[in-house]
């Protein structure tokens, strides 16, 4: 009975992302796009079945591996790190070469990358809570991310966060990103779920005196949505359970971050939609709605809602 | 039966497991020891139960172990605030453990378990103390495969293509294959069992695929799948999105005839959101490629409805696109490539009403785009070996939902030399972006890059050393006024000597002017990695230092320094 031992070395490809050392250079690499056929999971079984068909000799030969080994997960992570580095340095040619031209939404993705890398400087991506699952020919990385940058137009720092799932397929050239799930880290216009926050969520009824026509009550409204960076202003729809419907504008503070500091309320006997103030006739539930045209994760345009209770 | 009454145990080391499987049987540099010794060593090292060697009735079972433990202890000094730096200040540790055990019996059936987990007190790496990175069990044999835990299913582009936590099974009936998967999509195992707070709804998913060949060159398949968000899986107020559900069915084919391939799929779906009316929608993809002696040509059409709901990760909704892509080795000295496509983006918002003054679109994203990308690779023949000139051009001409323009273009040239010892490159790029819906960043950018590298190695390949220098300069001029210039350089050194280990060191610096005026933003940093393997063991130690300091411009400065020690032990 003998045991075979083979020397090897472990890698630590994720260390760069963990420790935050980034390359700020922009090496221009130019190459040729090639086509890569998607390999379904079933392909692995078919290949392995052939090996199994050969019977007991399969142990003596180097089989098509049915199960990815742990080192494969590191290779997949390295493929993602390479993609991130190309994005951080604005190397669109390198990104293009790492994509399959048959990818659905290929041009929308590339245009989104160009837009992001033109509007932001010093982009730094930080991954956390990263989980990697590597199969024989399909791999999935699920991670939370933080994207820090400086706006070119205002030179103010900005921060986006999100949760992404990357689907990789293995081809002749190694692991290649086949699809992006969740919030798109690389191309905002390919879809990132907006974040709508409101503070406070309860307003005392007594703070809206009947003697005044209206009052601007301090309410912090914020919409963070990288897909709509650069618009300048957006509209937030406000509806109440008493039938009022108003629209309030939010102003872009930093790219993709829209804020407003007050909401206009007025005590009223009857509700008049569209008069520029939220009419309060008694305890009221105020719902703020933001239509996210592209929330990512292959979800159609969706309405994000938050509520304020006036009581 | 050569393996009757004989058990062989192979321990393959992390990082080379794939190739080691074959090497173990062929290499002359294989150290052999009794199974019992190795099992005791495992128990001693891991402190856990010894792996049990099972023998099948026919006599032979092969068990393979892979595993590794990585321990990091490091100190981070980080200033600048959360908007500028992701790092946290303090002394931290991080422990990562991973293991892979698999047994193969005489019939070739493989049973396996894989596990990987991280524990750390550094909240910049993990938002909670412990995370299971992957957990999977499975068994496969002649014509079947079953996997449990973290599984990845890739049935089809419009059907199911995702990672989930659950079960994945596949069975072959002659030439026909039936596959199915079911489980949940959750942020992590920890959030699934609620040991950490959830921030997203848990989604129940299920999918199945039936595939069979109809000729020697063509196979057809059908898929059904669906998902449903668990309504009570998230605390009130966490998500601003309503739970959703979808079901879909697709049919498709794939044909391969010599150097021509054609594959297509069409599907229909129903998607609904809690409290809202549901939507029916459809999708179709068709891709063809043809390889010829001097290149290849591919073309395709994709149309995914805005409300198409599936588990296909690659089915980007709201897209309609047609493309033609090719590569042609036109002569011995030149290769040409091109990609032309027309795209529609239904997620760019609905066209705004006609008003005076005009109502702006609700997104700054192009609704329609025509694009063309071309490239050329030119070599200079045997008289100038190693030299290449690479040219590229990209043009994307788009229109927003209100018909305003949204365009970007770029041109680049790169002269490169790649020799055995020296390599170098000089590149130039020029790009322009204009978008009437988000005009603040409309600008023109020019950039230069230069790199020079040298590789040294001794005749016996006992040691290698390399040095690389990179420099880049970029200037971006905004249409609205103002410009920013960036100049960066980086010097990197690497060295490796057999038995001693490896050393990587680099230093970088840069300066960026502000578009709005004011002092320049300056940056400098270094990186050192020194790794030393302990001879005769499966362990190594690494010392690492990182520094990244940005300063000069008020409100944009941060300072990150990390010094750490890493121990790696391979089981």
What order do the helices and strands come in, and which of them pair?
The complex is a heterodimer of chains A (311) and B (571).
Chain A lengths: L2 E4 L8 H5 L21 H13 L16 H19 L3 H6 L8 H14 E15 L3 E14 L5 E15 L2 E9 L12 E5 L2 E2 L11 E10 L8 E8 L4 E10 L2 E11 L10 E3 L3 E9 L9 E9 L1
Parallel strand pairs in A: 7-14, 11-12
Antiparallel strand pairs in A: 2-3, 3-4, 4-5, 6-8, 8-11, 9-10, 9-13, 10-11, 13-14
Chain B lengths: L7 E5 L4 H10 L8 H12 L14 E19 L10 E16 L4 E11 L9 E12 L2 E11 L5 E14 L2 E10 L3 H4 L10 E11 L4 E12 L14 E14 L2 E14 L5 E14 L2 E10 L6 E2 L6 E13 L2 E12 L22 E12 L7 E13 L5 E14 L3 E14 L7 E15 L5 E16 L4 E15 L3 E12 L8 E13 L5 E13 L6 E13 L1
Parallel strand pairs in B: 1-2, 7-15
Antiparallel strand pairs in B: 2-3, 2-28, 3-4, 4-5, 5-6, 6-7, 7-8, 8-9, 9-10, 10-11, 11-12, 12-13, 13-14, 14-16, 16-17, 17-18, 18-19, 19-20, 20-21, 21-22, 22-23, 23-24, 24-25, 25-26, 26-27, 27-28
The level of helicity of chain B is under 10%
Percent range for β-strand residues of chain B: over 45%
pLDDT < 50 stretches of chain A = 1-64
**Secondary-structure element pattern of chain A, one letter each:** EHHHHHEEEEEEEEEEEEE
Count every helix of chain B, treating DSSP H or I runs of 4 or more residues as helices. Answer: 3
Average pLDDT number of chain A: 79
Instruction: Note the quaternary state here.
Output: heterodimer
Overall geometry of chain B comes to globular
The best one-word shape of chain A is: elongated
Number of strands of chain A: 14
């Amino acid at each position: 009975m003998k045991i075979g031992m083979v020397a090897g070395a472990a890698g630590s490809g994720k260390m760069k992302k963990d420790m935050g050392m980034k390359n700020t250079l922009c090496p221009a690499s130019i190459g040729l796009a090639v086509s890569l056929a998607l390999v379904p999971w079933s392909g692995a079984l078919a290949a392995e079945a052939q090996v199994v068909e050969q019977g007991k000799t399969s142990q003596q030969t180097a089989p098509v591996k049915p199960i990815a080994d742990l080192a494969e997960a590191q290779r997949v992570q390295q493929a993602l790190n390479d993609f991130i580095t190309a994005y951080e340095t604005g190397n669109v040619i390198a990104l293009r070469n790492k994509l399959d031209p048959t990818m659905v939404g290929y041009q929308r993705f590339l245009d989104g990358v160009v837009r992001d890398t033109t509007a932001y400087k010093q982009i730094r991506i930080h991954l956390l809570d990263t989980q990697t699952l590597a199969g024989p020919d399909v791999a999935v990385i699920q991670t939370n991310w933080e994207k820090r940058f400086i706006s070119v137009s205002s030179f103010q720092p900005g921060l986006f966060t999100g949760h992404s799932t990357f689907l990789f397929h293995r081809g002749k050239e190694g692991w290649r990103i086949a699809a992006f799930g969740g919030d798109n880290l690389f191309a905002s216009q390919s879809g990132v779920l907006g974040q709508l926050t409101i503070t406070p969520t309860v307003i005392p009824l007594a703070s809206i005196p009947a003697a005044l026509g209206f009052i601007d009550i301090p309410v912090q409204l914020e919409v963070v949505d990288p897909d709509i960076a650069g618009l300048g202003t957006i509209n937030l729809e406000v509806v109440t359970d008493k039938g009022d419907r108003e629209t309030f504008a939010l102003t872009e503070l930093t790219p993709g971050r829209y804020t407003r500091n007050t909401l206009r309320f007025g005590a009223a006997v009857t509700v008049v939609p569209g008069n520029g103030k939220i009419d309060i006739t008694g305890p009221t539930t105020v719902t703020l709605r933001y239509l996210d045209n592209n929330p990512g994760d292959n979800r159609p345009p969706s309405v994000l809602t938050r509520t304020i209770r006036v009581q | 039966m050569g393996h009757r009454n004989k058990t062989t145990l192979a321990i393959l080391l992390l990082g080379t497991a794939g190739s080691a499987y074959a090497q173990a049987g062929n290499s002359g540099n294989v150290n052999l020891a009794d199974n019992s010794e190795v099992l005791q060593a495992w128990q001693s090292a891991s402190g856990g139960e010894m792996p049990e060697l099972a023998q099948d009735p026919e006599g032979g079972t092969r068990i393979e172990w892979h595993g590794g433990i990585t321990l990091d202890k490091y100190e981070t000094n980080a200033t600048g605030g959360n908007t500028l730096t992701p790092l946290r200040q303090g002394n931290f540790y991080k422990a990562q453990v991973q293991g892979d055990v698999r047994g193969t019996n005489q019939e070739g059936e493989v049973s396996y378990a894989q596990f990987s987990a991280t524990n750390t007190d550094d909240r910049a790496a993990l938002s909670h103390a412990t995370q299971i990175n992957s957990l999977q069990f499975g068994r496969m044999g002649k014509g079947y495969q079953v996997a449990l835990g973290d599984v990845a299913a890739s049935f089809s582009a419009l059907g199911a293509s995702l990672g989930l936590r659950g079960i994945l099974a596949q069975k072959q009936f002659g030439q026909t294959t039936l596959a199915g998967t079911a489980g949940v999509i959750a942020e992590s195992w920890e959030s699934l069992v609620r040991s950490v707070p959830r921030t997203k709804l848990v989604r129940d998913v299920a999918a199945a695929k039936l595939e069979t060949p109809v000729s020697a060159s063509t196979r057809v398949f059908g898929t059904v799948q669906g998902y449903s968000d668990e309504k009570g899986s998230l605390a009130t107020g966490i998500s601003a999105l309503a739970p959703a559900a979808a079901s879909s069915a697709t049919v498709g084919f794939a044909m391969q005839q010599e150097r021509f391939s054609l594959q297509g799929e069409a599907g229909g779906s129903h998607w609904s959101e809690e409290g809202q009316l549901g939507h029916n929608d459809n999708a179709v993809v068709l891709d063809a490629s043809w390889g010829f002696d001097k290149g290849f040509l591919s073309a395709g059409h994709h149309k995914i409805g805005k409300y198409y709901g599936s588990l296909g990760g690659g089915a980007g909704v709201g897209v309609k696109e047609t493309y033609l892509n090719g590569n042609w080795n036109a002569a011995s000295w030149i290769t040409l490539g091109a990609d032309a496509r027309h795209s529609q983006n239904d997620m760019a918002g609905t066209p705004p009403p006609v008003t005076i003054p005009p109502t702006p679109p609700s997104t700054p994203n192009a609704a329609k785009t025509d694009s063309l990308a071309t490239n050329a690779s030119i070599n200079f023949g045997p008289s100038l070996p190693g030299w290449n000139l690479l040219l590229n051009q990209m043009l994307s001409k788009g229109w927003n939902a209100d018909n305003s323009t949204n365009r970007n273009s770029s041109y680049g040239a790169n002269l490169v030399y790649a020799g055995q010892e020296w390599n170098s490159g000089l590149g130039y790029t020029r790009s322009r972006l204009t978008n009437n819906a988000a005009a603040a960043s409309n600008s023109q950018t020019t950039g230069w890059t230069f790199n020079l590298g040298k590789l040294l190695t001794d005749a016996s390949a006992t040691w290698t050393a390399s040095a690389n220098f990179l420099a880049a300069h970029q200037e971006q001029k905004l249409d609205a006024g103002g410009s920013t210039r960036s100049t960066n350089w980086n010097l990197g050194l690497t060295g490796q000597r057999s038995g001693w280990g490896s050393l990587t060191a680099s230093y970088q610096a840069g300066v960026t002017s502000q578009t709005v005026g004011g002092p320049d933003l300056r940056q400098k940093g270094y990186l050192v990695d020194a790794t030393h393997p302990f001879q005769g063991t499966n362990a190594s130690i690494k010392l690492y230092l990182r520094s990244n300091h940005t300063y000069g411009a008020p409100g944009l400065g941060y300072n990150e320094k990390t010094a750490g020690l890493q121990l790696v032990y391979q089981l």
